[in-house]
């Protein structure tokens, strides 16, 4: 695991990095394809969010 200068774990090397990336990809896709066009879906990306924070 990588550590930054302040002794904290780098987010890119954390055990949740791949889950965080999956959530960010889902969010970005939702934002560009739905939100910008005025389509609001509160349940979008919930699975990815929950999976990341249940680790």
UniProtKB/TrEMBL annotation:
One of its GO terms (biological process) is phospholipid translocation. The keyword Disulfide bond applies. The keyword Hydrolase does not apply. GO terms for molecular function: phosphatidic acid transfer activity. InterPro entries: MDM35_apoptosis. One of its GO terms (cellular component) is mitochondrial intermembrane space. It holds the Pfam family UPF0203. It comes from the Eukaryota. Keywords: Disulfide bond. This is Uncharacterized protein. Belongs to the TRIAP1/MDM35 family.
